[in-house]
Design goal:
By secondary structure, this protein is α/β, with parallel strands linked by helices. 41% of the residues lie in helices and 12% in strands. Strands 1, 2, 3, 4, 5, 6, 7, 8, 9 and 10 form a 10-stranded mixed sheet that branches. The radius of gyration is 22 Å and the shape is globular. It comes from Streptomyces chrestomyceticus. InterPro entries: Bact_solute-bd_prot1, Chitin_NgcE, SBP, TAT_signal. It is found in: Cell envelope.
Length: 480
């Protein structure tokens, strides 16, 4: 789900949607055509393994990389590409890096033909379905990368330099790691401290009662409390899912991820849905939000037409043009407000996880080269370059030493520190993309927040969707 100019992660995208919902039909074609064989591309010969070349990269072989051109852009990847060529000078002129917003339609023919790139940033609205890729044996296991020495400290394996949970996110019920999430995203309720103080004379509301009071004050001044991208309502879970966990405990999200019967009928889900629906009923949502895409809703919010927006930490980079018009914007992220004193988790509970998912296709010609490019990207130098360019953390644990972080990223860092162990990481959006985006998001949450469906109706519909997915033998199931 990563950050995007076409879908916000994303990435959710983790790294995050803009061109419409195409995941299922396109991936059904991939499912039908993808082979579990080695395909037609010839593998390059491995190079000589050494301390400087632990993955045995062929030092003169071509490398083919495709990057999702979203909110993070591709300059950080081009800078890492230059580092790769510097490490392997014989590859000069042979390292190809292409950028596209249409990952699926661009790469599906190549996967089907057995000639995929060596490294892919699989993100955006046309993100390829990971469950299908894994079940069709289309991805290389990244364990050799994780067990290789890190660029900065050869005494540390790459896996030991990563933030907690990053490796597990790339796994699908086994020991193999299929995905490397490069960015590290903090999700929540984003706001301007300056606008909040100016409009409602308030700090971030730590209780839902305070949230409603702030929204009422804003309404009286002609400012909406909330907005969201109604065209892509699967942004709502960025704050809604941790809200559910806060009310009922992380176990509720685990049951939802596992597609357990009646998981969506949990009282915590009902309480959270009722609270969000109240925002609509009381007129606290910006009019026209159901028709806005992510960029339009972010623009309206950044211009002060609404106080709060559910989003990920990529929003600082993606909304930079609007935010920069107000030098005193003071971008910040808030954890879900406490619904009541009986909430199972404390205030500060937040959703944070890897974003901007990278994969090395199993049929790629230069698998070691693709992994080596990732090893370079996970160095402190490349990580700090990414942070400075796009105002987002990476999955490298730490890496911010000596950097002056922009307000939003600094706030995200503080939110992580405040959360401590109370960080949740729903997996449904990774394991069941179509269920999360098209059915839960567009089919239910979007309808509820537009007033076309009650919370009870939305819950019943989502439970039906989840049950259908659980009972569909063509969909591989995962457990946590």
């Amino acid at each position: 789900m990563g950050s995007t100019s076409d879908f916000s992660r994303r990435d959710l995208i983790k790294r995050a949607a803009a061109l419409g919902i195409v995941t299922v039909p396109a991936m059904s074609a991939l499912s039908a055509c993808a082979s579990s064989g080695d395909g037609g591309g010839e593998k390059v010969e491995k190079g000589e393994k050494s301390a400087k070349n632990p993955l045995a990269v062929n030092d003169s072989a071509a490398l083919d990389v495709v990057i999702f051109d979203g909110g993070f852009g591709d300059k950080y990847a081009k800078d890492a590409q230059a580092e790769y060529v510097a490490a392997f000078p014989k590859t000069k002129g042979k390292v190809k890096l292409a950028s596209t917003q249409k990952i699926q339609s661009t790469l599906q023919p190549r996967f089907n033909g057995g000639n995929p790139p060596d490294l892919v940033d699989n993100s955006g609205a046309e993100q390829m379905d990971f469950g299908t890729l894994v079940s069709k044996n289309q991805l290389a296991d990244l364990t050799p990368l994780l067990d290789a020495p890190s660029m900065d400290d050869p005494n540390k394996k790459v896996r030991d330099t990563l933030r907690p949970g990053v490796v597990e996110m790339g796994q699908f019920g086994g020991k193999e790691t299929w995905i490397m999430y490069y960015a590290y995203t903090v999700y929540g309720v984003w706001y301007s401290k300056t606008n909040l103080k100016k409009v409602a004379d308030a700090e971030y509301p730590q209780t839902w009662e305070e949230m409603l009071a702030v929204c009422e004050k804003a309404k009286k001044k002609g400012v909406a409390g909330w907005t969201y991208p109604g065209k892509y309502p699967y942004y709502l879970p960025f704050s809604l899912y941790p809200f559910i966990a806060k009310i009922g405990g992380a176990e509720v999200l685990r049951k939802i991820d596992n597609l357990e019967p009646n998981a969506w009928k949990d009282p915590a889900v009902k309480a959270a849905f009722d609270a969000y629906y109240e925002l609509y009923k009381k007129g606290y949502v910006l009019k026209g939000s159901p028709g806005l895409d992510h960029l339009q809703s972010q623009k309206a919010w950044a211009e002060g037409k609404a106080l709060f927006i559910p989003n990920g930490s990529w929003v600082e980079n993606e909304s930079a043009q609007q935010i920069e018009k107000n030098p005193d914007f003071q971008l910040s992220v808030g954890a879900p407000s406490s619904l009541s004193g009986s909430d199972k988790m404390p205030f500060g509970t937040i959703w944070a996880s890897g974003g901007e998912p990278y994969i090395v296709p199993r049929q790629a010609k230069n698998v070691p080269g693709g992994m080596e490019m990732l090893r370079i990207m996970l160095s402190k130098k490349s990580s700090q370059n990414f942070i400075k360019q796009v105002s987002s953390l990476t999955s490298l644990n730490g890496g911010t030493e000596g950097l002056k972080l922009p307000p939003g990223l600094d706030s995200a860092q503080q939110a992580l520190e405040q959360a401590g162990k109370n960080i949740v990481n729903p997996r449904i959006q990774d394991w069941y993309v179509a269920l999360q985006k098209e059915k839960i998001g567009v089919g239910a949450l979007g309808e509820m927040m537009a007033g076309r469906m009650t919370p009870d109706e939305a819950i019943n519909k989502i439970q039906k969707y989840a049950d259908e997915t659980r009972e569909d033998s063509s969909v591989k199931k995962y457990q946590r």
